[in-house]
Each structure stands twice: as structure tokens, then as C-alpha cells.
């Protein structure tokens, strides 16, 4: 839509300078009908399809990445109260459960998901008519279908009913849509994911950095898990082939080991300063420091007044079993400059040559999650605890964890063990909030944790004498989904806000 607004603006501007009829397109604009023709055109369009993912997951200092809504709004992480800089206070609101429709994180998610959808629709509306090799055509089509399904799945989980658009937007009327029931959105997601799976390449021959067939089946399995369609989930997930667990948990996230054998889908970043596609998660997640050089690998003298976000909670740290090697790989502790054993996310902490550029990718789907999804889908069908344990123990008792195999036969206990394993294995990968919601545990868990924070704020990184606002940490049914950004409500007369906002 932004392309057409820009074109209209330029046309009006040019026409105002002359009485002659305006019948030429601005030379700086490439019209869609002149672009989606050659294989190179679709190659560029496909790259453009992936670009919004970097903003969606976070890029730049003090970003508004998916970690705010997916991880910090959970019992896994919180924030370090920054008494000297309250400029990013709206990030706190998501964790405090007092966020509103003007928040930057919801706008970031909503906007970038719909940018992905529109770009996918542009490709899909023209790819069938392109005169390019059929194998390439199928691959580009599969990429677009996957990312459209992925973006809608993100939207529907966080916002509920959302406008469903499956054709390219060419005028204002196309954009002013009512919200579509989420059941219909889920139907489209499953269709897109199934079609993507039939078109994409297996990982063995796929171009690294782009999604392969296994990613589509993983997404499809995830959708069926959320919908509690357990048999369909199992069937889809058994089709995820060509991946393996790594023996070294820390190596999964090492920038020198990107797109490794366990990685199914990760958002690609690069720390080359000239490329402007670097990540900066570590700068957001490290403690607030005046000299980041005290943390190994970071530039001396670089300050970090943006940090202190997504700080691991005492509750999460205590959830790790004794001897679990994943703790050391996931969480670091810093003492100095007024901090005593202050935890921070180490999983994405691999240094930086030029502040604030880091080279870490963001994991979206890993094979470990596929195994845990299989364990869950099988357990929920009942009577198959041995099979469920087989998949669970591949993750839990793997050499990289240092833990002994579990021996559980009770369905309820096994369910709890699977969810605990997800919390530990997938910590800081934006899974926890959605897991709490779909398991109907969010209200109980977060309100209980909120009571603990209010009773002892200093244990949760508040300065002495500072307490959370009285309205904080009161999760209700309405807040299990987020508000539609207020800008969308103002612009679209057919858009209705979620209850309670």
C-alpha cells in the first residue's frame, strides 16, 4: 500500500507544476507490471520478502522486536529498571501488563507482518504468468506461501481476528477491510503451509538462509498443535526430515555456525557495517553498562544505556535442573559496577567489532522444537507414553544437556514435563508467552509471579525504594491477545478494537 500512496503523492506534486495532462509514471518508480517478469525480478522480490523479518525480530538499538511480546511478557524474563533513562518506558508496559493500543511493539509486529503479506501477495499474483523455469517458479511460490502463512500465524496468535488479504492491494478500498474470524484465517494458513510444503525443496538441496520443505511442515505442525488437532500435527511433523540435534547446545547459536543441521528457520543478519543488516540483540539484553568492554568480545568504551531488557528472572534460573549444561550456554552473570550476579541472556552474546553491530541470527524453528512438538502431539492422543518419551528424551537427555532420561507414564505428568522442557530448551526464542496462552496457564502463572515481584521488587531488579505501579501484573482474559494498533483503528473505519483496550 505504501508504494501506491507514494506514487499518488508524486503524481499530485508533479501535476501541480503544470497544466498539461500527466501521463508519465515517475522515473524513480518501477511499476509492478514492469517488474515481475524475469527470474532476476523474482529473485529480488524474494529477497525483499525476507527483509521485514529483521525488523520483526529486532534490529537496531532499543528495538521493538518480537522478544518484547513473546518473551518479556512471560515468567521467563523481565526488565532492569533504568532510573537514569525512562525514554523507552512503553517496553516495560508489556511486561507489567498495562500496555495499550499506542505501543510501539504491537505496531512493529502488525506492520511488518502485513508488509510480508503484501509482498507475498505481489509475488503470488504474478508468478504463475512468469515465463521462467518451472522449478524456480515453484520454489519462489513456495517461499511466498510459507512467509504469508507464517505472518498470518503470527498475527492471529497475538491479535485474534485480523483482516485476511490474499490478493495484491491496489487501492484504498482493498486496504479498508473488516477483521476476519480467526478460524477462517487459520484455514488459509493451513492451505498456504500445505501448498508451500509441496513446492519447497528438501534441506539437502535448498539454498541456505531460505526456508526449505521442513520449515513448511514445522509451521503446519505448529498450527495444528495450537488448534489441538493432535493427529494432524503428528502427521505433519513426521515429514520434517533432514535435520539433526547438535551435540553442543551453545554451538546452535554461534554466528560461525549459522543455518546449521538443527536450524530449520532463522532470521538472517550480518554485522558488516556497510550492509546495514546487523543484529543488536546483545546490546538490548546485556546489563546497563558504561563500558561494555567488561563483557568479553565487546568494544572497550562503548556504553549501553539501552540495555537491561529481557533479563532472565530468578524463577527461570531456578527452573534449570542441577547439571543442565544449557544454563551456562543460555544465561550469563555479571558482577561489577553495582551489579552482583546480574543475569543476562548469553545465548545471543558473541561480541561485536563495531558497536552496536552483532552477527547473531534469531532462531525461529529448530529441530529440537519439532521433537518436543511430536512428544506433545503423541501424548495428547493418550496411551502412547513410550513414544512420547522417546521424542522428549531426545532433547532432554541429549549429550548436550548432561541430564538423565525421564521415566514418566502418567499423561498429565508427561504434559508438564514437555512444557517445562520447552521452557528450558527454547528459552529466549519467543515461545514462552504463546505456550502459556495455549496451555491456559498464562493468567495463573503470570499473576502468581506478579504477586512475588510486588512482594519483593529488589529480587526482580528494581532499585531499592522503587516498586511496580499498583495496576501492574493483573492479567485478565482480555489481555491474552494484544490490542490492534490505534493507528489502524483511526485509518480504517471497518476496524474494531479488541475488548478491554
Question: What are the defining features of this structure?
Answer:
disordered N terminus; two-stranded antiparallel sheet; 46% helix; 20 helices; mainly alpha; 501 residues
**Broad shape:** globular
* Number of continuous helical runs: 20
Strand content: 5-15%
Whole-number average pLDDT?
92
What separation lies between the terminal Cα atoms? Answer: 27 Å
Classify the secondary structure makeup into a structural class. Answer: mainly alpha
* Largest sheet properties: 2 strands, antiparallel
Q: Portion of residues in helices?
A: 40-55%
Main-sheet strand order equals 1-3
How many distinct beta strands? 6
Q: Segments where pLDDT lies below 50 for 5+ residues?
A: 1-27
Verbal overview:
- Strands 1-3 form a two-stranded antiparallel sheet. Strands 2-6 form a two-stranded antiparallel ribbon.
- It has helices spanning 2-15, 32-35, 39-57, 67-72, 89-96, 104-124, 134-159, 172-175, 182-199, 213-226, 230-237, 281-285, 314-319, 325-330, 367-381, 385-396, 411-425, 432-438, 442-455, 486-491; strands spanning 77-78, 263-267, 311-312, 331-336, 339-345, 362-366.
- With 501 residues, the protein is mainly alpha-helical.
- The chain contains 20 helices and six strands.
- The protein has a domain at 281-360.
- The model is unreliable at 1-27 (pLDDT under 50).
Amino acid at each position: 500500500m505504501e508504494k501506491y500512496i507514494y506514487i499518488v503523492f508524486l503524481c499530485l506534486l508533479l501535476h501541480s507544476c503544470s497544466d498539461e495532462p500527466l501521463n508519465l509514471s515517475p522515473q524513480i518508480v518501477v511499476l509492478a507490471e514492469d517488474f515481475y517478469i524475469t527470474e532476476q525480478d523474482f529473485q529480488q522480490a524474494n529477497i525483499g520478502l525476507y527483509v521485514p523479518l529483521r525488523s520483526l525480530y529486532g534490529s537496531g538499538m532499543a528495538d521493538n522486536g518480537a522478544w518484547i511480546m513473546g518473551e518479556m511478557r512471560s515468567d521467563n524474563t523481565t526488565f532492569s529498571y533504568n532510573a537514569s533513562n525512562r525514554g523507552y518506558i512503553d517496553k516495560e508496559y508489556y511486561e507489567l501488563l498495562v500496555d495499550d493500543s499506542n505501543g510501539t511493539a504491537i505496531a512493529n509486529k502488525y506492520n511488518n507482518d502485513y508488509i510480508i503479506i503484501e509482498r507475498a501477495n505481489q509475488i503470488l499474483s504474478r508468478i504463475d504468468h512468469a515465463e521462467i523455469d518451472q522449478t524456480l517458479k515453484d520454489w519462489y511460490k513456495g517461499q511466498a506461501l510459507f512467509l504469508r502463512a507464517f505472518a498470518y500465524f503470527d498475527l492471529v496468535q497475538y491479535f485474534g481476528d485480523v483482516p485476511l488479504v490474499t490478493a495484491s492491494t491496489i487501492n484504498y478500498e482493498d486496504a479498508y477491510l473488516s477483521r476476519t474470524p480467526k478460524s477462517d484465517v487459520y484455514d488459509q494458513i493451513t492451505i498456504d503451509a500445505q501448498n508451500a510444503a509441496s513446492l519447497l525443496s528438501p534441506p539437502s538441496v535448498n539454498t541456505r538462509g531460505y526456508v526449505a520443505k521442513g520449515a513448511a511442515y514445522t509451521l503446519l505442525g505448529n498450527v495444528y498443535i495450537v488448534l489441538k488437532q493432535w493427529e494432524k500435527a503428528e502427521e505433519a511433523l513426521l515429514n520434517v526430515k533432514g535435520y539433526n540435534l547438535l551435540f553442543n547446545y551453545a554451538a546452535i547459536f554461534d554466528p560461525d555456525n549459522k543455518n546449521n543441521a538443527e536450524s530449520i528457520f532463522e532470521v538472517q543478519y550480518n554485522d558488516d557495517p556497510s550492509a546495514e543488516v546487523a543484529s543488536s540483540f546483545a546490546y538490548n539484553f546485556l546489563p546497563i553498562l558504561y563500558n561494555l568492554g567488561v563483557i568479553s568480545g565487546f568494544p572497550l568504551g562503548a556504553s549501553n544505556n539501552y540495555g537491561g531488557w529481557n533479563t532472565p528472572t530468578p524463577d527461570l534460573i531456578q527452573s534449570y535442573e542441577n547439571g543442565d549444561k544449557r544454563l551456562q550456554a543460555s544465561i550469563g552473570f555479571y558482577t561489577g559496577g553495582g551489579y552482583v550476579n546480574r543475569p543476562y541472556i548469553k545465548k545471543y552474546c558473541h561480541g561485536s567489532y563495531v558497536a552496536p553491530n552483532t552477527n547473531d541470527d534469531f532462531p525461529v524453528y529448530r529441530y529440537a522444537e519439532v521433537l518436543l512438538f511430536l512428544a506433545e502431539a503423541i501424548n495428547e492422543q493418550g496411551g502412547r507414553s513410550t513414544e512420547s518419551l522417546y521424542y522428549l528424551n531426545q532433547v532432554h537427555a541429549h549429550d548436550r544437556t548432561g541430564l538423565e532420561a525421564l521415566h514418566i507414564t502418567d499423561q498429565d505428568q508427561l504434559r508438564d514435563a514437555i512444557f517445562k522442557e520447552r521452557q528450558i530448551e527454547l528459552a529466549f526464542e519467543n515461545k514462552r508467552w504463546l505456550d502459556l496462552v495455549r496451555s491456559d496457564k498464562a493468567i495463573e502463572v503470570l499473576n502468581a509471579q506478579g504477586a512475588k515481584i510486588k512482594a519483593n521488587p529488589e529480587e526482580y531488579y528494581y532499585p531499592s525504594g522503587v516498586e511496580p505501579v499498583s495496576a501492574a501484573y493483573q492479567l485478565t482474559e482480555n489481555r491474552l491477545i494484544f490490542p490492534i494498533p490505534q493507528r489502524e483503528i483511526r485509518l480504517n473505519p471497518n476496524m474494531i478494537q479488541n475488548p478491554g483496550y
